[in-house]
Amino acid sequence: MTFRNECPRQIFSSWRFRQIVSMNASLGDGIRSILIIQTKYIGDVVLTSALVRNLRLSYPQASVTMLCAPGLKQFIVAQGIADVAVGFESRGRGRTLRKRLSDYRGVISDLRRKFDLSIDLTDSKTSRMMHRLIGAPLRVGFDPPEHPMKFWEIQLANVLAATFGQGGAHYLYRNLSPLHALGLDCQDPTPRLQPTRAAQEECARILAENALAKKSYVAVHAGARFEGRCWPPQHFAAVIDEVYAKTGLRSLLVGGPDEGLAAQRILEAAASPVASAVGKASLEVLTALLAEASIFLGNESGPMHIAASVRTPAVGLYGLTSPEQWGPFGVPNRTLQPPMPCPCIAPGVCKENNAGRVYCVQRLQVADVAAATLDLIGTEVQKSAHSGISAA
């Protein structure tokens, strides 16, 4: 382990270092409660599930609580990512400073001194402060932080994890880095989710309503949290039509209630029969729909990571974000990114070096995306045929 005292710029005496090592070793044998601070987006939570699974293997008696975005609480518990989910809105969202401070104080009061081990994956100024005030004896944080701290800021954790992890360039390894900092083995790095029974039943209803059979459709997600990550709807429609013409596979549009406009534009532009579950499925049901899809096609977003976590091959479309860091993990995939550096197609609109505020993804060509999608479908069909022959 790598440890730090309360004054991170001080040099440890050998006596103090041995004292902390001894304290953490004794606690490690009796970890009964773990807090994960992960208040980011759904994709981050999916990647965090791999950390939690490995923590459970090392600490099988421990309960796991996750501090998360309020809208993800039900999904996190339903998927078994954590035993308890506590909602916390880390962004302003129109709240006054007094209201935000009151909310912070309430969460800290509820969680204070209830955990043997806490891990801060959010790695923000707010999360670092809350991490310290919650007061677990073992506090894992990143050193250095992902984004440089100001000269007056300090890392208030006492167990330090490598910022970008070990094992590969993918962002997943950052979320797994606390295992190494704690002296634990990573037994399986791949995020794996499993649809719940209730979600499978609702999924079956949606598929029947749209005359779709399992493994006979392409799940298409045309939305993303940021507009700059969205490939144009008419381009998706063109690929959907080509896939249908050459394979007979229909497409099912998926997404949240706020992604209805993109879905409507695809439905209007597509010549082939397209079904839509946009705004009609919870995250749990979305997980089931993605598990039953033949492949996934979509922008770099949370649903892409959910698709990979349920073993569905994926085609991911990228702009400034690197597929090496944020690609579909653990499944056959095709990722497309326009050549970089990008000749700007939206001067005055793009925010340089901000992956959510640039429009590079719109430079991807329909022909290239269609070719990648058809290639992945063909590969999976051949694999299935080969498996059938082998089984026979």
Describe this structure in words.
This protein is of the alpha/beta class and 392 residues long. It folds into two domains: 168 residues, Glycogen Phosphorylase B (Rossmann fold, 3-Layer(aba) Sandwich), CATH 3.40.50.2000; 177 residues, Glycogen Phosphorylase B (Rossmann fold, 3-Layer(aba) Sandwich), CATH 3.40.50. Helix content is 40%, strand content 13%. The chain is built from 13 helices and twelve strands. It has a six-stranded parallel β-sheet with strand order 3-2-1-4-5-6, with helices on both faces.
Distance between the termini: 51 Å
Task: Report the mean per-residue pLDDT as an integer.
Answer: 88
What shape does the CA trace take?
globular
CATH topology of the largest domain: Rossmann fold
CATH superfamily of the largest domain: Glycogen Phosphorylase B
**Estimated share of beta-strand residues:** 5-15%
CATH architectural designation of the largest domain: 3-Layer(aba) Sandwich
Largest sheet entry:
6 strands, parallel
Assign the CATH class of the largest domain: Alpha Beta
Question: In terms of per-residue confidence, which ranges show pLDDT below 50 for 5 or more consecutive residues?
Answer: 5-21
Given the helix and strand composition, which structural class is it? alpha/beta
E-strand count: 12
Organism: Mesorhizobium ciceri
Keywords: Glycosyltransferase, Transferase
Protein name: Glycosyltransferase family 9 protein
GO molecular function: ADP-heptose-lipopolysaccharide heptosyltransferase activity
